[in-house]
Amino acid sequence: MPAGSMLPSSRHALFYLVILFIALLWSREPATPITRHIGKKKCNKNKGIMGCTSTKEKRSGGFRGGDESGGAGAGEFSSLAKENPVAATLKEEWSDFVRSLSVSAFSEARREVWANTASSPLTHRSVDKVGKLFLVYVRNDLTLREWGGNFDYTVVGLANQGFLRATATVDAGGGTGQSKEAVWEVKVHYHSTTKPQ
């Protein structure tokens, strides 16, 4: 190439393409995590708090039900809790937490329990479905109570067992103007099978 030429060499062109590709990847939003945020808190003020990620669902006031992610999922979780021991345990633990938070200045609850699954092991996939439906159930419960909060779940599966860990940070102040924040975590262990159910 002549010394006075303005055309970039193929090495420079490749360099610019790589830089553009990296910039494009960098600017894309990450995959959707399984974390939800409800209430009046602003995540940009609370960086690092569970649920302050790029995806948030904010709701205030009563739930209008009927849409796919709302009322139907909460009802499905309640039905599932009648059949699935992990769902039943989660629902019971959540109800105990909410009841205690309603009557006292409850600040933190961490429990580890076993669901009664020894006679009928579950698949990790079915427990993951329980976790997804539980998020909808909790979201609706907090909305109906006019509470705010952040919540998520994790499923960890091993060969013969696994656990679902559900966590929540709840602001039960509601319309009172006073913050009544509490942390809840439950780890529900279960027996598992590799066979699909």
Any chance you could write out the topology, listing elements then pairs?
Elements: H1 10-27, E1 35-38, H2 71-83, H3 85-103, E2 108-114, H4 124-145, E3 148-157, E4 161-171, E5 181-191
Parallel strand pairs: 2-5
Antiparallel strand pairs: 1-3, 3-4, 4-5
Signal peptide: 1-27
Biased composition (Gly residues): 62-74
Region (Disordered): 50-77
How would you explain this protein's 3D organization?
By secondary structure, the protein is an alpha+beta fold. The chain has one domain. The protein is 37% helix and 22% strand. The chain has helices at residues 10-27, 71-83, 85-103, 124-145; strands spanning 35-38, 108-114, 148-157, 161-171, 181-191. The protein has a five-stranded mixed sheet, covered by helices on one side. Helix 3 (85-103) packs parallel to helix 4. The termini are far apart. The model is unreliable at 29-70 (pLDDT under 50).
Total number of distinct structural domains: 1
- The proportion of residues in beta strands is 15-25%
Radius of gyration: 23 Å
Question: Largest beta sheet: what is the strand line-up?
Answer: 1-3-4-5-2
Helix content, binned percent: 25-40%
Major sheet: 5 strands, mixed
Class derived from helix and strand content? alpha+beta
The stretches of 5 or more residues where confidence is low (pLDDT under 50) are 29-70
